[in-house]
Amino acid sequence: MYRSILKIKTLILFIFLVIECHGVTKVISTENLFRKVERIQIKNDSTIKYIIATSGLNYRKKPSGEILGKLPLNTKVTIIERTGVFQEIIDEGKPIKGEWVGILFSNLPKKVYVFDAFLSEKKYVKPFTIFDFQSYQIKNKNYGFVVLTDSYPWNNNKRIIKSEFLGNNAIKHHELKNRYRKNFLHSMEIKETDKVYIYNYNLDELKEFTVKELSLVAEPNPYGSDFPIEESDYLIGFDFKRKISADKTSLYYNSYVFVGEKNPFIKGGLVPVIWRKLIEKESPFVKSNEKSTYTFESKDSVEIYSFTNRNYKYYLKIKNKESMYTQAFHLIIKKDKDIVFDKVYTGSEGATPAPLAFGVKKERRYYEQWTGRLFKNKPPVIFGFMYYSFNCNGIDFLKSPSNSIWIKCDCRH
């Protein structure tokens, strides 16, 4: 293995560095201190990395030198030199430290340099995010609204609201256009060509829209705001006023929304959970793995219910209490002989148990608990046990150990 080692003396270098990555340009004054730094060229022991700057990463002729081009997200590169030139930059309001490294990539056999803070051993995978379908009201009519600001990075210093709607000006509903729309979507990693998929599990209906055909609107915080008005006093999201009529909006409240390139939902994969009460001699012994501060004591009055879906068996233990705020559900789900889900749901001031179904209902929309296949390439799910006042609802996966995702609804109680 060939290694060329260049030792340099202590050097204090003051520079003004312009680094462009993540679509954000920052000019900062910085001080670099190098002591006996070794510059190593790696010939036979190369390191494979991937670009994780979502809007691409500039590559240069030399460390902090002339920009030659930009590498797209998830481009595979090979590090062949570690320069020992370290730097700290500000990216989207946060300090990031890294080193300039020499790389090769498939379309350019000649060595170039990049900032390694935006390199990773694994490809970037956008977080799997599900949004809630809500509404805003104008003249006593409700219009569909998918709020995105639950995931918005408010500290990124990009202007998304016009000054005429901020400060001591009146807070009001308005549409984001031009650079304000562009800044918001870019910060959310949403492209105009992405799709918005709305899956209504009550109707088993899927709607699809392209981002560029939807208005992006800012709605005042429904719980009020104090002066001076700030950008974060608004809920921002996609407006469906021209896509779903006001008289149909309420039909979509029981929907999940995904924004991205491909549809993640499975139609026809969910079934309502209809519970059957077990008599004592039918009640199986099901050992729980749940470690919870809440327990069912022998003196408590409990009832056990069951439900079957394919090769999954559901057991629900309920503790009867007069107050719904202290009602408790203990749910255990078995796949064949293995426990794949084990969870205790408890009521509180901000969480109320949802009604259970003990028989077939007239319409699908009257069921609260649903289970089965909701997402492609993911385990089956179950949801619908709780109403939350100060939080968004969640979806639990039937997989041990249990995991879940919380729906993004930008609850601001």
Describe the structure.
This protein is mainly beta. The protein is 2% helix and 45% strand. The protein starts with a strand and ends in a 7-residue tail after the last strand.
Brief summary of the model shown:
With 413 residues, the protein is mainly β.
**Structural category:** mainly beta
Helix content: under 10%
Dominant shape: globular
Q: How would you characterize the largest beta sheet?
A: 7 strands, antiparallel
For the terminal residues, how far apart are their CA atoms?
62 Å
Number of strands: 32
Estimated share of beta-strand residues: over 45%
Radius of gyration, taken over Cα atoms and rounded to an integer in Å: 27 Å
| Overall average pLDDT | 84
Low-confidence stretches: 1-45
Number of helices: 1
Layout of secondary structure:
Layout: E1 5-7, E2 11-21, E3 24-34, E4 38-41, E5 47-51, E6 57-60, E7 67-71, E8 76-91, E9 94-105, E10 108-115, E11 119-120, E12 131-132, E13 134-138, E14 141-147, E15 174-176, H1 178-187, E16 195-200, E17 205-210, E18 215-220, E19 234-239, E20 255-260, E21 270-272, E22 276-277, E23 302-309, E24 312-319, E25 328-335, E26 338-346, E27 351-353, E28 370-372, E29 381-383, E30 386-388, E31 394-397, E32 403-406
Antiparallel strand pairs: 1-4, 2-3, 4-8, 5-8, 5-11, 6-7, 8-9, 9-10, 12-20, 13-14, 14-19, 15-18, 16-17, 16-20, 18-19, 21-28, 22-23, 23-24, 24-25, 25-26, 27-30, 28-29, 29-31, 31-32
